[in-house]
Known about the structure:
This protein is of the alpha+beta class. The chain has three domains: 3-56, CATH 2.40.50.100; 68-144, CATH 2.40.50.140; 148-224, K Homology domain, type 1 (Ribosomal Protein S8, Chain: A, domain 1). It is built from five helices and 17 strands.
Amino acid sequence: MGKMIANDKDIVVPGENLAEGMDFLPGFGTYRDGDNIVALMVGQLRISGRALKIVPLSGKYVPKKDDLVIGNVTDITFNGWLMDVNSAYHAMLPMKDATSDFITRGADLTKYFKIGDWVATQITNVTSQKLADATMKGPGLKKLTGGRIIYVSPSKVPRIIGRQGSMVSLLKNTTGCRIVVGQNGVVWVDGDPQKEQLAKDAIRLIEQEAHTQGLTEKIQAFLGGSK
């Protein structure tokens, strides 16, 4: 007898085993590997009778352990903060990972983070219930005050960061802005308003031209010609 390993509406990732046995049929976004049906892409699993298919997440971010992400605080619970990380998942920032302060039960958590705050945080664990755990303990992890938020396609983040951080360094050095790039496709830019706009325009250009050769030279020319 076949058996399901993943559940209907689960978020699945490439290579994940979805079902065992010949009772199930691979549909869009899945393939058969021996007795197993395996996910070919990131997306939401939909089970219809015996058929399995994946509905691609339209460029939504799927959290991975150790990713640096930029989150927006959406709720405060008795034991921490819930954040939107531009994903089908939410991230939970527990009190113990938010600060080295000793927080007493029932303390006012808004003195650390309020609803609407933006934070650079790191994913520590991904659970199956559309929830990821996060921490503020690490270099560069902090509340982001001022500046502006730019959303980009998560798949373009590696080009925006560049090899060994070369592209983001170029952006920072040329515009004088402080910039944090989240793996979840959220970028924070803080500086002189005109320079923030210049950085944003350059980031949009990187997104559009990510697949082309000589990208660094194009961006250097764009930034150099915009001074």
